[in-house]
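Format notes (please read before filing issues)

Several people have asked whether sequences and structure tokens are stored in separate files. They are not. Every record keeps both together, in the order shown below: the sequence lines, then the token lines. Line labels are part of the format and must not be stripped during preprocessing.
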Amino acid sequence: MRYAVICQDKPGALQVRLDTRAAHLAYIEATGVVEMAGPFLGPQGEMTGSLIVLQVDSLEAADAWAAADPYARAGLFDSVTIREWKKVIG
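Then the structure lines:
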């Protein structure tokens, strides 16, 4: 099953994102369950959140993945929403 992990950064937390980015990308590669991912952008093109599509067996697995993400562990996110998602196009 696919799950969309929709994350909104805390205001003013860009430096936390930048400082943790290498660990976040390494986590994505090591876990092997991310189908696609990328940042949301603000008006000046700055990163303000994340959209990550996971291929995992359950909502619990998606929750566990999201909780262990270095971004989450660093306290970057103001909110995280996880929803089951069905790919139709692309």
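For reference, the curators noted about this record: The chain is about 35% helix and 40% strand. The two ends are 16 Å apart (CA to CA).
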